[in-house]
Design goal:
The chain has two helices and eleven strands; from the N terminus they run E-E-E-E-E-E-H-E-E-E-E-E-H. It is globular, with a radius of gyration of 15 Å. It is mainly beta.
Amino acid sequence: MTKLDLDMSAPGDAALRQVVMVGLGPELFALDAGMVREIIDPIPTAMVAGARAFLSRVINVRGNVIPLADLRIRFGMPAHEGTADTRIVVIEIEIDGDPVLVGILADKVYEVTEILPAGVQQTPRVGMHWKPEFISFIAKWRDEFVIVPNMERILN
């Protein structure tokens, strides 16, 4: 997958936003396609002693040791053993000015698609069970609301 220079930081831009749609339980998330490096089948993991609960494992992707994030744990969702649809989405984010690869466990990867600017909305401050700082904004996709997460804040 090629890198796309898309600004996912603020709603209201005129450009379409290309995203990778992933599922965690009943929730739909839209990851900026520009940060996604690859999508792989589950592979063996190694535990990391003393690591935070949602980042307690690492994987080896073609010789690179990459932390594996379980966003279910980070979001307070029930644990999930995985199914035939489970995938690891390898993303690149910037932490302290440096690019970092991180694997994200997804219950399902749906497709690469576009979010129309008209469907982008600010995150409501009331009624959400997600921490507002974890959400960049909410968008509409196929008559459903999807969460566009702020991966830098989630993983820091």
